[in-house]
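Our platform keeps sequence and structure together, in a single record for each protein. Such a record has a labelled line for the sequence and another for the backbone structure tokens. This encoding replaces a full spatial description with a residue-level series of whole-number codes. Below, we set out a record of this kind in full and without editing:
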Amino acid sequence: MAEALAPLVHLLLGPDISVHVRLWDDSTLGDPASPATVVVRTPHALRRILYQPNELGFSRAIVTGEIEIEGDAFFALRALDAAPPELRIGVRTWATTLKATARLGVLGPPLPPPPEEARLRGGAHSKSRDAVAISHHYDVGNQFYRLVLGPSMTYSCARFVDPSVSLEEAQAAKYELICNKLGLRPGLHLLDVGCGWGGMARHAATHHGVSAVGVTLSTQQQEWAAQRVGEEHLGEQVEIRLQDYRDLGGERYHAVSSIGMFEHVGKARLGQYFDVLFALLEPGGRLLNHAISTPGGTDYDDTSFLLRYVFPDGELQDVATVVAAMQAAGFEVRDVEALREHYALTLRRWLDNLEAHWEEAVALVGTARARIWRLYMTGSVLSFEKGEISIHQILGVKPASNGASRMPLTRASFA
């Protein structure tokens, strides 16, 4: 099998195969001493790759277990990514592989996609479709998220003042940084858009004395966060709602935080998003937008693993596009900070948690979804470390009546 399929393997991994490849008949290709082995357990994997060449077919085979990576998954994904574009599957390679699989007797019709694959209906970024997209990713069980995220239940980039600090300390440092950028103090009213499990709202209320409203589209997040608010005796300060930010008209806040939610907005909705948040703010109020970004922006196409399995309808924006959209809505942009290295560290901690609790995670959400998370986080670490994607905190201020935005002279208050 290895000899027959060598042309396909060489095109996927380059002419010098740095990983070890083992096929279902135990024939092999590549370096046996490699730190990573790509195991093709069944001919079904070839059918997936033939009918959906490259990323989608490969990821479907990973999700189903038809392909597994043994050893260093980072090494294996780097090898897959390192093959020059001209070596990726094209028409000629597809035809050659088709003939080889037919000759080997492993060719068959297309296989159905795994049931974990998202298929959304309705207009992109409509309220109803956004609710389904959010539920696909976030409503998989709070116990599973507790395993991966740790006690903080915070699903966004942490801030590591030192690489040796715990994940929980780094998440608290992130919240504190945002509170300081927003200038929070007792008596102010905070809105946290896409509040997740309520970490930001609870931190701001506990440590800065504000009253806070958090909104989320995830039923399970809202239920868990509301319970924690009660357990921490914050009911008079913090309210967690199951609500779309677009339905917040008529309310006013002194500060707005948006942490890890912006990726779900969509480029076509940027103007509406910032217009809504601008209208919700009191004059002089501040917005902190914390979001993943990428040069040039991207809306993942229909063959993307992330789009199909992780973040349906997710889009990343260029930081310049975000700044321009904020300014168009009337904000004065006062600070931009990149935390790219911090997200790679955060993801590695989440991966460590997943691996340490693998059997429990599988029991909670199934093997396929656990594999999705392993692949998604491993690939994301590499993307952040390479600088393909980054994350930026952008601070905007709604000008006061005199046109000025009151800010400290230096970043010292953000420390």
